[in-house]
Here is the input.
Amino acid sequence: MRTIARISLLLSLGALVLSGCDSAPGVPGKGAETPAPDQILDFDTLYSENCAGCHGKEGRGGAAIALGDPVYLAVVKEDTMRRVVTSGIKGTSMAAFGQSAGGMLTDKQIDVIVAQIHTRWGRPGIPGVNPPSYAASVPGDAARGAIAYNTFCESCHGPGGRGGPKGSSITDGSFLALLTDQELRTMVIVGRPDRGAPDWRNNVPGRAMTDQEITDVVAWLASQRVPAPGQPYPATSKAKP
Here is the structure.
């Protein structure tokens, strides 16, 4: 009986020692382990680390377009956004984030980002509005686009798109070199609300741009691209001795 009592005492002491180790200094507590990067599924963390640097805190816009704009989300559906996030946009600052395209994010992480952007910041619909299609369905005509530009855009961006009292130049070679035709189309449709630029409905009061007019304006803008943006370099005066 004494032997059994000793064994029981030893087991009790062992359990006490082991339980004390859990709270010993330097020993991480339960749930304190840092998850592997590809296991993070918290939207706030994923958006902050991958999107906010360009698209702004809470999708309010920055160097790139505002993702939290309901008008933008009415035009750019989840499947389109998922493709862009995964594969990026070639020739622009929009990098590929999907592992399948050389990025760091898993398909599941991208699904979280895309779904939460639409859930948090989108609206089921814009009352009384049928947004233009995200991508052009027919070719644009630059000559017609010049006329549409004069009607809808010149009052802000000035003659020939060289800048005006309310908007910067949009025919500058360096500016056009940084944007694809699709990005130009998206910007014409959605505007830049973070910078006071209206969407396709509000350039002329009571007269929204048609899908074809948007396509034609983009064709006209694309026709203003130059082979060597930024050339020739401005002349610099020689330093005085």
Residues 61 and 200 are 18 Å apart (CA to CA). The two ends are 106 Å apart (CA to CA). The mean pLDDT is 86.
